[in-house]
Amino acid sequence: MDHNLIFVVGLVVVPVLILMLLRINATMVFLGLCLGYVLTQFLGGDAKSFAQTFLGHTTISTSVMKLVLLLFPPVFTALFMVRTVRGTKLIINVLPALGVGCLLALLVVPLLPPGLSHSITNTSAWHQAVRLQDLIIGVSALASLMSLWLIRPRRNSEKAH
After folding, report:
1. What percent of the chain stands above pLDDT 70?
2. How is 75-135 classified by DSSP, letter by letter?
3. pLDDT at 2 over 90
């Protein structure tokens, strides 16, 4: 098996395992990842200039700054959401968790160092993933919405006494 394919599969599987084992609400992490993408699109260049103001002569590449902006919201969301999914609702959490893993791979690979990024993006598996990205994002968003509607705290009047 190609090491690039193993890396991409790891980008998908590791977040899914972490989300499921720590019972983290994957829908919130998915939304955090979407927020991270919005931040990279609108603040990527400005954040690099802002960070260099505080770091002095240390240079930060744009891709590193975009990776930080992309990963900050989902990582901290995951930290705050540990053990928020209980019981049978963990089964509902599987599809959004898969969505997080797939979306993470689709967003992180282009921001990797050029050599690694090019070696991954030149594979047939990556081309297939890019062709399916609309489907991946659409199904992930729908699964996250469904999960958000189904995994919600019960009101006090609904709790058994």
Report:
1. 92
2. HHHHHHTTT---TTHHHHTHHHHHHHHHHHHHHHGGGS-HHHHHHHHTSHHHHHHHHTHHH
3. no
CA-nearest of 128, 92, 149 to 8 is 128
Tokens of 107: 């967003």
CA distances 158 to 36, 87, 152, 154, Å, are: 35, 17, 12, 6
Domain range annotation of the chain: 3-153
Q: Does residue 59 come out as left (phi exceeding 0), alpha (psi in the -120 to 50 range) or beta?
A: beta
Spatial contact of 19 and 90, defined as CB atoms under 8 Å apart: no
CA–CA separation, 155 vs 143, rounded Å?
23
User: For residues 153 and 85, is the Cβ–Cβ distance under 8 A?
Assistant: no
Rounded Cα–Cα distance for residues 57 and 75 (Å): 28
Residue with tokens 């939304």: 31
pLDDT confidence of residue 64: 86
pLDDT at 51 over 80: no
What token pair was written down for 26? 């994957």
- The pTM score is 0.89
